[in-house]
């Protein structure tokens, strides 16, 4: 799992504002959603990662973008 500002070669780094939540298997991204977080919301990003990890480990959510959306759309 990864939460952060994705690299985008078309947008200068100082103008990138999207924070994504991605589920990864090795080098492959298997699900990705854009969150409501801002790049400076590091504590909230860590909390988001913990919540998603716990839900996955408990078998409460599937490994899909659809299952991640409720987590990504909520402010912490």
Provide a descriptive summary of the structure in words.
The protein is α+β, with helices and mostly antiparallel strands and 76 residues long. It has one domain (2-7, 17-72). The protein contains 2 helices and 3 strands; from the N terminus they run βββαα. The chain has helices at residues 42-57, 65-72; strands at 2-4, 20-25, 28-34. It has a 3-stranded antiparallel sheet, covered by helices on one side. 12% of the residues are buried. The model has no long low-confidence stretch (mean pLDDT 94).
Q: Give the low-confidence spans.
A: none
Number of strands: 3
Distance between the termini: 18 Å
* Residue share in helix: 25-40%
Strand content: 15-25%
How are the strands of the biggest sheet laid out side by side?
1-2-3
Radius of gyration: 12 Å
Large-scale geometry = globular
Summed up, the domain count is 1
Class of secondary structure makeup: alpha+beta
Order of helices and strands: EEEHH
* Assembly type: single chain
Characterize the largest beta sheet: strand count, sense, and whether it forms a barrel.
Answer: 3 strands, antiparallel
Helices, by number, come to 2
Mean pLDDT: 94
């Amino acid at each position: 799992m990864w939460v952060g500002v994705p690299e985008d070669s078309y947008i200068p780094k100082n103008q990138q504002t999207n924070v994504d939540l991605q589920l990864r298997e090795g080098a492959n991204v298997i699900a990705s959603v854009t969150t409501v977080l801002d790049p400076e919301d590091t504590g909230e990003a860590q909390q988001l990662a913990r919540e998603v990890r716990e839900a996955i480990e408990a078998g409460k959510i599937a490994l899909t973008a659809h299952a991640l959306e409720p987590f990504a759309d909520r402010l912490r």
